[in-house]
Amino acid sequence: MDRVILRQSLENYRTPFDEEKAFAAEFIELTYDDDAFLRSREQGHFTASAWVVDKFRTHTLLTLHRKLNRWLQLGGHADGVENLLEVAMTEAREESGLTSLRFVGNGIFDIDKHIIPQRGDVPEHFHYDVRYLIEAELNEPLTLSSESIDLAWVPFDTVEDVVGYSPSILRMLEKTSRSEYVI
């Protein structure tokens, strides 16, 4: 059932960003694949992320990812779970230790298809990342997980300085400041 709800959400998802429009149909098609939520699907699989922001929309929580050595939003593999909002919330909790996490969106916040380089015996593959807007308390203590080198609340006006050129993160940042995405 979660797969059907995800498919409907993707079919109804609208974005003004051409890069998302370019691969939206691939996300919908992937929901028909029985292995789409498993990392064993070597050509690519679903992942889920939490774009965590504070209630005043001045900061976002980013992690310095241990394997990729890049600042990213929190998230991870579905590992068979078809409810990607649940995956995003679980990953955000596990990777930050935050208990104040709250889904504040109206559904899918962003989608991104990106390549993951080969690592060991895992071949290069795509992540079909479905992202959700999540709010948390800025003053709650953070707990670093084994997946991260660091965690930080990054002020919106310094995100680009921290992440460098990262079109998908900058797109989420732009969406956060647009009135249609502000809750």
Automatic annotation (TrEMBL):
InterPro entries noted in UniProt: NUDIX_hydrolase-like_dom_sf, NUDIX_hydrolase_dom
UniProt-recorded Gene Ontology molecular function terms: hydrolase activity
Domain named Nudix hydrolase: residues: 43-178
Gene3D superfamilies reported for this sequence: Nucleoside Triphosphate Pyrophosphohydrolase
Keywords: Hydrolase
Coiled coil: none
Keyword Hydrolase: yes
Protein name: NUDIX hydrolase
Organism, as annotated: Belliella filtrata
